[in-house]
Amino acid sequence: MISLNLNAVKENQETSARIAAAIAAFEARGGQFHYAPGFYGKPKPTARSQIVDPSTVLKRRRNKPTANERRLFRELAEAL
Fold first, then answer.
1. CA separation for the pair 17, 21 (Å, rounded)
2. What's the superkingdom here (predicted)?
3. Residue among 36, 17, 14, 34 at smallest CA distance from 25
């Protein structure tokens, strides 16, 4: 990390030294590191509500009438 803030640099040096000491102690106890392949996770899709807002339902496009319905509407209009 590049930082012009000297306090942050000193804090990072202390943290790095502490981690390096912990790694050295782990190896001194006979610990071994095993390198595993990387994990490439797939993000979960955004959560969708199970409840449908009634105002949304009213704004949806209606289905177009079928040929039979158009014929029926035409016959009803002529009967009037």
1. 6
2. Bacteria
3. 17
Residue closest to 48 by CA, chosen among 40, 56, 39: 56
Give first-to-last CA distance, the chain, whole Å: 82
For residue 22, which of 34, 35, 33 has the smallest C-alpha distance?
33
Task: For the full predicted model, state whether its pTM sits above 0.85.
Answer: no
What angle (nearest 5°) sits at the alpha carbon of residue 71, between those of residues 65 and 73?
A: 70
pLDDT digits 0-9 by tens, 10-40: 778 888 999 999 999 999 999 888 888 888 8
Q: CA–CA separation, 76 vs 70, rounded Å? A: 10
Query: How many Å separate Cα 12 from the centre of its chain?
Result: 31
